[in-house]
Design brief:
It is a single chain. The protein has 3 domains: 2-93, no CATH class; 99-323, no CATH class; 345-393. The chain is mainly α. The longest helix has 22 residues, at 72-93. It starts with a helix and ends with a helix. The chain has 19 helices and no strands. Helices cover 53% and strands 0% of the residues. Helix 2 packs antiparallel against helix 5 and helix 10 (181-188) packs antiparallel against helix 11 (199-216). It comes from Thalassotalea castellviae. This is Orphan protein.
Length: 394
Amino acid sequence: MRKLLSSPVKMPLSESENFIYQNILKYVPELSLNLMAIKVDEHPNDFLGWCHQLLKLSRDSINMDLLEPAQLPSLKKLHDILKTSISRAQIKMTRIAPWPIFCQFIQQQKIAHALDERLRLLQYINEIKTQPLSEMIEEDKLAFAGKHTNKHDISLYQFDVEWFASTKSAKVFHQLFIEQPQAFDQALSHIPLTGEVTLNEYDKFVSAYQDIFSSYSSDKANDKKAPLAPATRLLAMRRPDQFIALTASKIETFCQGFSIAKFNNFDFSAYWQDMIGTIRTCAWWHQASPENEQELILWNNRVILLDVFLHAEKGSAEKSNYIKLRDKPLKKTTKSAPMVRKRSKESAEALIDRALEDEELPAYLLNKRDTLIHQVKEGKTVEQAISLMRAIFG
Protein backbone atom coordinates (compact mmCIF):
# COMPACT_ATOMS: atom_id res chain seq x y z
CA MET A 1 0.00 0.00 0.00
CA ARG A 2 2.87 2.38 0.74
CA LYS A 3 4.14 1.91 -2.82
CA LEU A 4 0.66 2.54 -4.25
CA LEU A 5 0.14 5.70 -2.21
CA SER A 6 3.46 7.18 -3.32
CA SER A 7 3.32 6.10 -6.99
CA PRO A 8 1.67 9.31 -8.35
CA VAL A 9 4.90 11.13 -7.47
CA LYS A 10 6.48 9.37 -10.45
CA MET A 11 3.56 10.14 -12.79
CA PRO A 12 3.45 13.17 -15.12
CA LEU A 13 0.60 14.83 -13.21
CA SER A 14 -0.99 18.04 -14.41
CA GLU A 15 -1.26 20.93 -11.99
CA SER A 16 -4.89 20.09 -11.20
CA GLU A 17 -4.12 16.38 -10.77
CA ASN A 18 -1.26 17.20 -8.40
CA PHE A 19 -3.63 19.40 -6.40
CA ILE A 20 -6.11 16.52 -6.12
CA TYR A 21 -3.33 14.11 -5.14
CA GLN A 22 -2.12 16.41 -2.37
CA ASN A 23 -5.70 16.80 -1.17
CA ILE A 24 -6.10 13.01 -1.04
CA LEU A 25 -2.93 12.66 1.03
CA LYS A 26 -4.43 14.90 3.72
CA TYR A 27 -6.80 12.08 4.69
CA VAL A 28 -4.33 9.22 4.51
CA PRO A 29 -2.47 9.68 7.86
CA GLU A 30 -5.62 9.18 9.95
CA LEU A 31 -6.41 5.99 8.01
CA SER A 32 -2.83 4.79 7.51
CA LEU A 33 -2.91 1.81 9.88
CA ASN A 34 -6.11 0.52 8.25
CA LEU A 35 -4.86 1.16 4.72
CA MET A 36 -1.48 -0.47 5.30
CA ALA A 37 -3.21 -3.73 6.21
CA ILE A 38 -4.68 -3.98 2.70
CA LYS A 39 -2.91 -6.21 0.20
CA VAL A 40 -2.19 -4.48 -3.10
CA ASP A 41 -1.71 -6.59 -6.22
CA GLU A 42 -2.01 -3.94 -8.94
CA HIS A 43 -0.08 -0.68 -9.30
CA PRO A 44 -1.54 1.43 -12.15
CA ASN A 45 0.87 3.79 -13.88
CA ASP A 46 -1.69 6.49 -14.72
CA PHE A 47 -3.56 8.78 -12.34
CA LEU A 48 -7.07 7.71 -13.39
CA GLY A 49 -6.23 4.05 -12.86
CA TRP A 50 -4.60 4.94 -9.54
CA CYS A 51 -7.78 6.69 -8.35
CA HIS A 52 -9.89 3.69 -9.38
CA GLN A 53 -7.54 1.30 -7.55
CA LEU A 54 -7.35 3.33 -4.33
CA LEU A 55 -11.13 3.80 -4.28
CA LYS A 56 -11.74 0.09 -4.82
CA LEU A 57 -9.30 -0.97 -2.10
CA SER A 58 -10.37 1.61 0.47
CA ARG A 59 -14.03 0.80 -0.14
CA ASP A 60 -14.06 -2.98 -0.57
CA SER A 61 -10.92 -4.26 1.17
CA ILE A 62 -10.61 -2.09 4.26
CA ASN A 63 -11.64 -3.74 7.52
CA MET A 64 -14.55 -1.59 8.67
CA ASP A 65 -14.62 -3.31 12.06
CA LEU A 66 -11.21 -1.86 12.86
CA LEU A 67 -12.18 1.69 12.02
CA GLU A 68 -12.96 4.08 14.85
CA PRO A 69 -16.14 6.16 14.47
CA ALA A 70 -14.01 9.29 14.35
CA GLN A 71 -12.24 7.94 11.25
CA LEU A 72 -15.41 7.47 9.18
CA PRO A 73 -15.69 11.14 8.07
CA SER A 74 -12.09 11.00 6.77
CA LEU A 75 -12.82 7.81 4.85
CA LYS A 76 -15.96 9.33 3.33
CA LYS A 77 -14.07 12.47 2.34
CA LEU A 78 -11.34 10.34 0.75
CA HIS A 79 -13.97 8.47 -1.26
CA ASP A 80 -15.71 11.68 -2.33
CA ILE A 81 -12.47 13.20 -3.62
CA LEU A 82 -11.56 10.00 -5.50
CA LYS A 83 -15.02 9.76 -7.11
CA THR A 84 -14.89 13.39 -8.23
CA SER A 85 -11.39 12.89 -9.57
CA ILE A 86 -12.47 9.80 -11.54
CA SER A 87 -15.44 11.67 -13.04
CA ARG A 88 -13.28 14.64 -13.92
CA ALA A 89 -10.63 12.47 -15.60
CA GLN A 90 -13.16 10.43 -17.58
CA ILE A 91 -14.91 13.55 -18.84
CA LYS A 92 -11.53 15.06 -19.71
CA MET A 93 -10.82 11.93 -21.75
CA THR A 94 -13.79 12.70 -24.02
CA ARG A 95 -12.08 15.87 -25.24
CA ILE A 96 -9.59 13.80 -27.23
CA ALA A 97 -11.44 10.49 -27.63
CA PRO A 98 -12.29 9.41 -31.19
CA TRP A 99 -15.69 7.84 -31.84
CA PRO A 100 -14.56 4.16 -31.42
CA ILE A 101 -13.08 4.88 -27.98
CA PHE A 102 -16.14 6.92 -27.01
CA CYS A 103 -18.44 3.99 -27.91
CA GLN A 104 -16.20 1.42 -26.29
CA PHE A 105 -16.19 3.26 -22.97
CA ILE A 106 -19.99 3.59 -22.97
CA GLN A 107 -20.36 -0.16 -23.60
CA GLN A 108 -17.90 -0.88 -20.78
CA GLN A 109 -20.19 1.06 -18.43
CA LYS A 110 -23.28 -0.88 -19.54
CA ILE A 111 -23.98 -2.54 -16.18
CA ALA A 112 -22.68 0.13 -13.82
CA HIS A 113 -24.72 2.88 -15.51
CA ALA A 114 -27.79 0.80 -16.41
CA LEU A 115 -27.24 1.61 -20.09
CA ASP A 116 -30.05 -0.61 -21.39
CA GLU A 117 -32.55 1.05 -19.07
CA ARG A 118 -31.32 4.51 -20.02
CA LEU A 119 -31.67 3.70 -23.71
CA ARG A 120 -35.23 2.46 -23.13
CA LEU A 121 -36.04 5.85 -21.63
CA LEU A 122 -34.50 7.68 -24.59
CA GLN A 123 -36.32 5.44 -27.06
CA TYR A 124 -39.63 6.07 -25.31
CA ILE A 125 -39.11 9.84 -25.33
CA ASN A 126 -38.12 9.68 -29.00
CA GLU A 127 -41.48 8.05 -29.76
CA ILE A 128 -43.58 10.68 -27.96
CA LYS A 129 -41.63 13.92 -28.39
CA THR A 130 -43.39 14.93 -31.61
CA GLN A 131 -46.60 15.15 -29.58
CA PRO A 132 -47.17 18.51 -27.84
CA LEU A 133 -46.66 18.48 -24.08
CA SER A 134 -50.12 19.96 -23.69
CA GLU A 135 -51.62 16.81 -25.27
CA MET A 136 -49.54 14.27 -23.35
CA ILE A 137 -50.94 12.31 -20.44
CA GLU A 138 -49.46 13.26 -17.07
CA GLU A 139 -47.14 10.25 -16.90
CA ASP A 140 -45.58 11.07 -20.28
CA LYS A 141 -45.13 14.75 -19.41
CA LEU A 142 -43.29 13.83 -16.23
CA ALA A 143 -41.19 11.24 -18.08
CA PHE A 144 -40.12 14.01 -20.45
CA ALA A 145 -39.40 16.43 -17.61
CA GLY A 146 -37.64 13.92 -15.33
CA LYS A 147 -39.91 13.39 -12.32
CA HIS A 148 -40.88 9.90 -11.18
CA THR A 149 -44.25 9.14 -9.54
CA ASN A 150 -45.91 5.88 -8.55
CA LYS A 151 -48.26 6.37 -11.52
CA HIS A 152 -45.41 5.30 -13.80
CA ASP A 153 -46.66 1.77 -14.35
CA ILE A 154 -43.59 -0.46 -14.66
CA SER A 155 -45.30 -2.68 -17.21
CA LEU A 156 -45.17 0.28 -19.62
CA TYR A 157 -42.45 2.54 -18.21
CA GLN A 158 -39.66 -0.01 -18.01
CA PHE A 159 -37.12 2.58 -16.95
CA ASP A 160 -36.52 5.22 -14.32
CA VAL A 161 -37.69 8.51 -15.83
CA GLU A 162 -35.14 10.36 -13.66
CA TRP A 163 -32.04 8.94 -15.38
CA PHE A 164 -29.66 11.65 -16.67
CA ALA A 165 -31.18 14.49 -14.65
CA SER A 166 -33.94 14.40 -12.07
CA THR A 167 -36.02 17.58 -11.73
CA LYS A 168 -38.16 16.46 -8.79
CA SER A 169 -36.74 19.17 -6.50
CA ALA A 170 -37.52 21.99 -8.97
CA LYS A 171 -40.90 22.83 -7.46
CA VAL A 172 -41.57 26.12 -9.26
CA PHE A 173 -40.59 24.55 -12.59
CA HIS A 174 -43.03 21.68 -12.11
CA GLN A 175 -45.84 23.95 -11.00
CA LEU A 176 -45.47 25.98 -14.18
CA PHE A 177 -44.90 22.85 -16.27
CA ILE A 178 -48.31 21.54 -15.16
CA GLU A 179 -50.11 24.87 -15.43
CA GLN A 180 -48.58 26.21 -18.66
CA PRO A 181 -47.71 23.26 -20.95
CA GLN A 182 -48.54 25.31 -24.05
CA ALA A 183 -45.89 27.86 -23.06
CA PHE A 184 -43.27 25.13 -22.74
CA ASP A 185 -44.39 23.76 -26.11
CA GLN A 186 -43.82 27.19 -27.61
CA ALA A 187 -40.34 27.39 -26.09
CA LEU A 188 -39.34 23.92 -27.31
CA SER A 189 -40.71 24.60 -30.80
CA HIS A 190 -37.66 26.78 -31.41
CA ILE A 191 -35.43 23.68 -31.15
CA PRO A 192 -35.65 21.68 -34.40
CA LEU A 193 -35.98 17.91 -34.21
CA THR A 194 -33.28 17.35 -36.85
CA GLY A 195 -30.10 19.07 -37.92
CA GLU A 196 -27.58 21.04 -35.89
CA VAL A 197 -29.16 23.43 -33.39
CA THR A 198 -27.92 27.00 -33.88
CA LEU A 199 -27.23 29.74 -31.33
CA ASN A 200 -30.17 31.73 -32.68
CA GLU A 201 -32.54 28.80 -32.14
CA TYR A 202 -31.15 28.21 -28.65
CA ASP A 203 -31.50 31.90 -27.75
CA LYS A 204 -35.14 31.88 -28.84
CA PHE A 205 -35.79 28.87 -26.62
CA VAL A 206 -34.06 30.53 -23.66
CA SER A 207 -36.01 33.75 -24.10
CA ALA A 208 -39.35 31.90 -24.24
CA TYR A 209 -38.39 29.63 -21.32
CA GLN A 210 -37.35 32.55 -19.11
CA ASP A 211 -40.51 34.43 -20.03
CA ILE A 212 -42.62 31.58 -18.57
CA PHE A 213 -41.10 32.18 -15.14
CA SER A 214 -41.23 35.98 -15.30
CA SER A 215 -44.84 35.98 -16.55
CA TYR A 216 -46.52 33.16 -14.66
CA SER A 217 -44.67 32.44 -11.40
CA SER A 218 -45.43 34.08 -8.06
CA ASP A 219 -44.28 37.56 -7.10
CA LYS A 220 -41.29 36.14 -5.19
CA ALA A 221 -38.05 37.22 -6.87
CA ASN A 222 -36.53 33.72 -6.67
CA ASP A 223 -39.57 32.14 -8.32
CA LYS A 224 -39.22 34.44 -11.32
CA LYS A 225 -35.62 33.35 -12.00
CA ALA A 226 -35.64 30.58 -14.58
CA PRO A 227 -33.37 27.68 -13.48
CA LEU A 228 -30.94 26.24 -16.02
CA ALA A 229 -30.94 22.59 -14.92
CA PRO A 230 -34.61 21.76 -15.77
CA ALA A 231 -34.18 23.54 -19.10
CA THR A 232 -31.22 21.31 -19.98
CA ARG A 233 -33.38 18.27 -19.20
CA LEU A 234 -36.03 19.45 -21.67
CA LEU A 235 -33.41 20.30 -24.29
CA ALA A 236 -31.61 16.97 -23.90
CA MET A 237 -34.84 14.98 -24.16
CA ARG A 238 -35.80 16.83 -27.33
CA ARG A 239 -32.30 16.62 -28.83
CA PRO A 240 -30.08 14.10 -27.00
CA ASP A 241 -27.54 14.39 -29.81
CA GLN A 242 -27.10 18.13 -29.16
CA PHE A 243 -27.56 18.80 -25.44
CA ILE A 244 -26.31 17.45 -22.12
CA ALA A 245 -28.73 17.21 -19.18
CA LEU A 246 -27.42 18.83 -16.00
CA THR A 247 -28.35 19.04 -12.36
CA ALA A 248 -27.05 21.72 -10.02
CA SER A 249 -24.68 19.18 -8.44
CA LYS A 250 -23.30 17.98 -11.80
CA ILE A 251 -22.41 21.41 -13.16
CA GLU A 252 -19.14 21.70 -11.23
CA THR A 253 -17.98 18.18 -12.14
CA PHE A 254 -18.58 18.67 -15.86
CA CYS A 255 -16.96 22.12 -15.77
CA GLN A 256 -13.87 20.64 -14.13
CA GLY A 257 -13.74 17.81 -16.65
CA PHE A 258 -14.04 20.17 -19.61
CA SER A 259 -11.60 22.67 -18.03
CA ILE A 260 -14.09 25.53 -18.23
CA ALA A 261 -15.04 28.08 -15.58
CA LYS A 262 -17.75 26.91 -13.24
CA PHE A 263 -21.08 28.59 -13.92
CA ASN A 264 -24.22 28.75 -11.83
CA ASN A 265 -27.70 27.31 -12.29
CA PHE A 266 -28.97 30.45 -14.04
CA ASP A 267 -26.20 31.02 -16.58
CA PHE A 268 -27.71 30.01 -19.92
CA SER A 269 -24.97 31.77 -21.87
CA ALA A 270 -22.13 29.78 -20.27
CA TYR A 271 -24.03 26.52 -20.80
CA TRP A 272 -24.10 27.18 -24.55
CA GLN A 273 -20.84 29.05 -25.12
CA ASP A 274 -18.60 27.10 -22.76
CA MET A 275 -20.08 23.64 -22.28
CA ILE A 276 -21.91 22.97 -25.54
CA GLY A 277 -19.20 24.88 -27.37
CA THR A 278 -16.51 22.64 -25.86
CA ILE A 279 -18.48 19.47 -26.63
CA ARG A 280 -18.72 20.55 -30.26
CA THR A 281 -14.93 20.60 -30.54
CA CYS A 282 -14.71 16.88 -29.68
CA ALA A 283 -13.89 14.37 -32.42
CA TRP A 284 -16.67 11.96 -31.42
CA TRP A 285 -19.31 14.69 -31.76
CA HIS A 286 -18.27 15.28 -35.38
CA GLN A 287 -18.54 11.57 -36.21
CA ALA A 288 -20.68 10.96 -39.30
CA SER A 289 -23.79 8.84 -38.82
CA PRO A 290 -22.54 5.23 -38.43
CA GLU A 291 -24.02 2.32 -40.37
CA ASN A 292 -23.82 -0.12 -37.43
CA GLU A 293 -27.28 -0.23 -35.80
CA GLN A 294 -26.01 -0.32 -32.21
CA GLU A 295 -23.57 2.50 -32.83
CA LEU A 296 -26.31 4.52 -34.50
CA ILE A 297 -28.38 4.36 -31.31
CA LEU A 298 -25.44 5.75 -29.34
CA TRP A 299 -24.76 8.37 -32.03
CA ASN A 300 -28.36 9.62 -31.92
CA ASN A 301 -27.95 10.12 -28.16
CA ARG A 302 -24.25 10.91 -28.03
CA VAL A 303 -24.28 14.17 -26.06
CA ILE A 304 -26.71 13.15 -23.32
CA LEU A 305 -24.70 9.93 -22.91
CA LEU A 306 -21.80 11.97 -21.53
CA ASP A 307 -23.57 11.21 -18.26
CA VAL A 308 -22.09 7.71 -18.49
CA PHE A 309 -18.59 9.18 -18.12
CA LEU A 310 -19.38 10.23 -14.54
CA HIS A 311 -18.27 7.83 -11.83
CA ALA A 312 -21.00 5.31 -11.06
CA GLU A 313 -21.61 4.65 -7.39
CA LYS A 314 -21.44 1.00 -6.45
CA GLY A 315 -24.95 -0.42 -6.87
CA SER A 316 -26.29 2.78 -8.48
CA ALA A 317 -28.04 0.79 -11.22
CA GLU A 318 -30.08 -1.02 -8.56
CA LYS A 319 -31.22 2.32 -7.13
CA SER A 320 -33.34 2.95 -10.21
CA ASN A 321 -36.96 3.74 -9.33
CA TYR A 322 -38.01 1.21 -11.95
CA ILE A 323 -35.89 -1.56 -10.41
CA LYS A 324 -37.07 -0.75 -6.90
CA LEU A 325 -40.72 -0.94 -7.98
CA ARG A 326 -40.16 -4.05 -10.08
CA ASP A 327 -38.47 -5.91 -7.24
CA LYS A 328 -40.62 -4.54 -4.44
CA PRO A 329 -41.98 -7.46 -2.39
CA LEU A 330 -45.74 -7.74 -2.20
CA LYS A 331 -47.04 -6.63 1.16
CA LYS A 332 -49.35 -8.88 3.11
CA THR A 333 -52.97 -7.83 3.12
CA THR A 334 -53.89 -5.78 6.18
CA LYS A 335 -57.21 -4.76 7.59
CA SER A 336 -56.70 -1.14 6.62
CA ALA A 337 -57.76 -0.30 3.08
CA PRO A 338 -54.91 0.43 0.67
CA MET A 339 -54.56 3.93 -0.72
CA VAL A 340 -55.97 4.07 -4.25
CA ARG A 341 -54.47 6.51 -6.73
CA LYS A 342 -57.00 7.03 -9.50
CA ARG A 343 -56.03 8.05 -13.00
CA SER A 344 -57.90 10.28 -15.39
CA LYS A 345 -59.90 8.55 -18.11
CA GLU A 346 -57.55 10.03 -20.75
CA SER A 347 -54.52 8.64 -18.96
CA ALA A 348 -56.11 5.21 -18.46
CA GLU A 349 -57.12 5.00 -22.13
CA ALA A 350 -53.61 5.88 -23.32
CA LEU A 351 -51.97 3.35 -21.02
CA ILE A 352 -54.33 0.52 -21.96
CA ASP A 353 -54.14 1.24 -25.69
CA ARG A 354 -50.36 1.17 -25.46
CA ALA A 355 -50.45 -2.15 -23.62
CA LEU A 356 -52.89 -3.70 -26.11
CA GLU A 357 -50.40 -3.09 -28.91
CA ASP A 358 -48.48 -6.10 -27.60
CA GLU A 359 -49.06 -8.81 -30.22
CA GLU A 360 -48.50 -11.57 -27.66
CA LEU A 361 -51.65 -10.65 -25.72
CA PRO A 362 -54.68 -12.88 -26.43
CA ALA A 363 -57.16 -11.40 -28.89
CA TYR A 364 -60.10 -11.51 -26.47
CA LEU A 365 -58.49 -8.78 -24.37
CA LEU A 366 -59.13 -6.31 -27.17
CA ASN A 367 -62.84 -6.76 -26.53
CA LYS A 368 -62.27 -6.01 -22.84
CA ARG A 369 -60.74 -2.58 -23.52
CA ASP A 370 -63.47 -0.59 -21.75
CA THR A 371 -63.32 -2.86 -18.71
CA LEU A 372 -59.55 -2.59 -18.58
CA ILE A 373 -59.74 1.20 -18.82
CA HIS A 374 -62.23 1.30 -15.96
CA GLN A 375 -59.97 -0.89 -13.80
CA VAL A 376 -56.92 1.32 -14.43
CA LYS A 377 -58.93 4.49 -13.92
CA GLU A 378 -59.96 3.19 -10.50
CA GLY A 379 -56.37 2.65 -9.41
CA LYS A 380 -55.14 -0.73 -10.68
CA THR A 381 -51.90 -0.94 -12.62
CA VAL A 382 -52.15 -2.02 -16.26
CA GLU A 383 -50.48 -5.30 -15.35
CA GLN A 384 -52.99 -5.95 -12.54
CA ALA A 385 -55.96 -5.16 -14.79
CA ILE A 386 -54.77 -7.45 -17.58
CA SER A 387 -53.91 -10.24 -15.11
CA LEU A 388 -57.41 -10.00 -13.64
CA MET A 389 -59.04 -10.32 -17.07
CA ARG A 390 -56.86 -13.31 -17.92
CA ALA A 391 -57.73 -14.97 -14.63
CA ILE A 392 -61.44 -14.51 -15.29
CA PHE A 393 -61.60 -15.31 -18.98
CA GLY A 394 -58.48 -17.48 -19.25
